[in-house]
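Q: What does the assembled structure look like for these inputs?
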Amino acid sequence: MDPPNDWYNLLADLDFELPPDLPPPNGAAGGLSPQIPLSLIRQELSTKRWIAIPDDVVARFRQWRPTPLRRARELEAALGTRATILYKYEGANMAGSHKLNTAVAQAYYYKAAGTKRLAVATGAGQWGTAIAEGCRMFELGCRVYMVRKSYEDKPYRKTIMEMLGAEVVPSPSEETETGRRFLAEGQSSGTLSIALAEAMEETLVEGTRFCAGSAETYSMLHQTVVGLEAMAQCSELGAWPDVVVAGVGAGSNLAGIAFPFLGRALTGEGPEVRLLSVEPAACPKLTKGRYAYDYTDSSEQTPLQKMYTLGSRFTPPSMHAGGLRYHATGKLISALFDRGMIDAVAYRQQEVFASGTLFARCEGIVPAPESAHAVHGAVVAAREADERGESPTILVSLSGHGLFDMSAYEAYSNGTLDDVEVADETIEESLAQLPEVAEPVASAGGRG
Amino acid sequence: MDPPNDWYNLLADLDFELPPDLPPPNGAAGGLSPQIPLSLIRQELSTKRWIAIPDDVVARFRQWRPTPLRRARELEAALGTRATILYKYEGANMAGSHKLNTAVAQAYYYKAAGTKRLAVATGAGQWGTAIAEGCRMFELGCRVYMVRKSYEDKPYRKTIMEMLGAEVVPSPSEETETGRRFLAEGQSSGTLSIALAEAMEETLVEGTRFCAGSAETYSMLHQTVVGLEAMAQCSELGAWPDVVVAGVGAGSNLAGIAFPFLGRALTGEGPEVRLLSVEPAACPKLTKGRYAYDYTDSSEQTPLQKMYTLGSRFTPPSMHAGGLRYHATGKLISALFDRGMIDAVAYRQQEVFASGTLFARCEGIVPAPESAHAVHGAVVAAREADERGESPTILVSLSGHGLFDMSAYEAYSNGTLDDVEVADETIEESLAQLPEVAEPVASAGGRG
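A:
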């Protein structure tokens, strides 16, 4: 089997448009558009169903794609479930996660647009490692602002990025105005939105462009290689998912594995499919956030996007799935959730690590904490189906390996893992600070 | 491409026999044979060229095999060499190394022979992780004696073995007579041969068998899946190696990738091929050891094997390639070296990590320190070839990933990595303690 030659664009098959972005109410002139290559902006806005993957990117994909799709027979047996559990494993590449799929593509397009150097933000380090690898492939310089909590907890991620030639800076840092402001406020553990703001500021350096990460709609497009492969592999197995489950930070992981299946269902070419988002109880944007216009980072200089958000000033408590510590979901995921096309659940990390440990024991792969959320979602879904006497096929996005997260697994097995959750009043306080804007269109029929 | 259905047995194509094992001179009644399933002993002694891989083992192989063979184009460019450098990557499985190839097979055969539980020894933890995974697959209990230095330096390896259901004990331990003896002597960092002796002692427990690891001739047989796949992949690429290079602890890694090519050369079906063993300067058995009868572990209870050895009482200085800290090479590798059919070089760890870091930067995979030895061997071979005006094809065994060795890479990049080597007089002292035995046959024509 070869990796796909085209990405699948869900926008082609939706009967609604995404709410437009709005300029920030403080009148800031900035914004992402001058940063992002036109080729990526075109992808963001395209409604073509298939978008050709550049040959140079397909050639890179061949180094680790297609990735395996397997049936978790031993997990099924351990659960005693009648559900069929399949998983698609994206962890067997240098970056250790699905994020490399879009990092390669983004690095390619930035290089083609004449960029010399990228500035990026990373939470747990998976995006940073992926983009460092993408920059290495296409010979771009790379500076990574890494959330300080992860920088300190996961020194190996930093080392690996440096080995790939990237420069890694803990955020908040002394290197930017934003960083110095948050340090002065006593905010030292950092968040992804602060790191994003710092990376944005870095683009004042000549030849340097900001590279957003994985919340953008074009990142979700790039990730569809996962779902397209999974679709071919499911056909080969004679199986088809009733439920597709993924851990959700901004949502590109869920988008990548699920959109091709959702597209088939929307066009009547395939059966109905349930998309299940699993988020941490420490950062529950879909289950407890609001569908509203908000900033994508802490700089408050970028256009507002309509998203499910906890507020861009929300600081999630420290927990191990750093990749899920983002205050909002991407606008496409948010719009689908608003229309009831995605279900969402939130779990605490102890139960998540219990399922992650069970999965490792049964299937021989240690899931990244982010992926363990998806595993736990599948475990719960299987149990619920058993109670109802149903036997669904559940497809899990095993988006990355947890080999850099062994200390968290060790803490879980020692009984010393914090079971963090965020209080409702904290969320209310944060939501009260959302920017006030007049909405251009009513989101009729939604949950918002 | 499918994984192979048969292992290749080099013994079929050799025009000499291996020197027989001898009973230990102290009259110990023990020995490995009662521990090892007859099926494996038959493989050890067989001279059949092809040995069928059990279907259950092939089915497990399909989870991660065939493994990729790639051309290291960016490494070639960085070196400015005219040599072609290919590498076969065995790190993308749960165990993180080639060792899983034989661990799966051994666990299968022990299970088939009615064993309930295995006791094993591990250096850096790669064999331990591999056998823990094999035991998990075939539902065997597993106790791992792990060299204490690695146990302390690599806690994540321990955690991962425990997650796979194994029990991990630092060696020397208080659990065995051997362990207590070495602890009493103040030997606390441990060696692989002490850990082996402890695991042997563990078999006094009912239903428990000792599982030797990767020095046995049948382990080398099992590893030939690597070389057989590489041969097919080289054919596809239209390339064929002039040199095959691997890091050597006991030698199964070199055996696995190189024996199929060597066999072709011996039978005249393929061109000549140079086998290049790379060992650490801290444990230079081929380059500085003696071809003599010696114990395979520190218990001094097992049959003597004729091997290149530094003496079973030799304690290599601490260094990061724990998998290469074994005092001898397996008897088959030793016999081939004695006959000039293998070349050997030894390098210090600083130059090894320099090449490992360069490889990671160029090719996007962090090599295990053991594998970095092979990479460095290839780098030196390429430079030497350039000086001679030659342009050979060099095939490197990239036997494992270094994601659990980031602290060593960090130390290298900080300039704090010890550059250990062992003094000639230390080796002489150790060799003076080799057991005295009458050799049953003269090894005419050898270097010994």
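The mean pLDDT of chain B is 92.
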